[in-house]
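#structure-requests
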Amino acid sequence: MRTLSTVSKVFMWMFMVVYFGFQSLAVLGIMSSNASAGEGGKTFSPVPLIVATLLMLAAVILFTVLPKRKWIGVIISVVAAGVMLMVALELGRMFPPSVSTTGTVGLTTWKLIWRHIGISMVAVFMIVAWLADRQLEKEYYASRQKSGYNLSGDPLFKGLDDPEEMPVKMKRSIKDRIRKQKELQ
């Protein structure tokens, strides 16, 4: 479980760095596309893309920084993945693929998945790491549980010579209980 948790956290950070770069380039592309569209052309606001990317970054940081409340980062990452899905679908609608002499222009389904929707893998790896960490904690606390105290009155330690001949010294409370039971009879 520890290996699964560590590998998931490493992949979570790797995907976050790669997709943060992709989203930064996408914001720059959208801004240049908006500038070339002019006043009457179709423009797309990069704000939802920026918000979704920063939400995912905040989720990864909170997941790492808050060891006892990792669920906060998990919830934020799921929300950010949902927002990113909506933004990616809107980007696909805004920039449909078209074939030109230079190749395919616009966002094909594969480009949408690879460049924008793939950031949801950060949330997937985060959930796997969170579940693995929870299982590790449960196993740790189960191994630390003591069987309880021995209140039977038997000696805790016996001598090495002859344990049969050792006198058993009873507790005063047990002696009193036996004495009261005899008095009642």
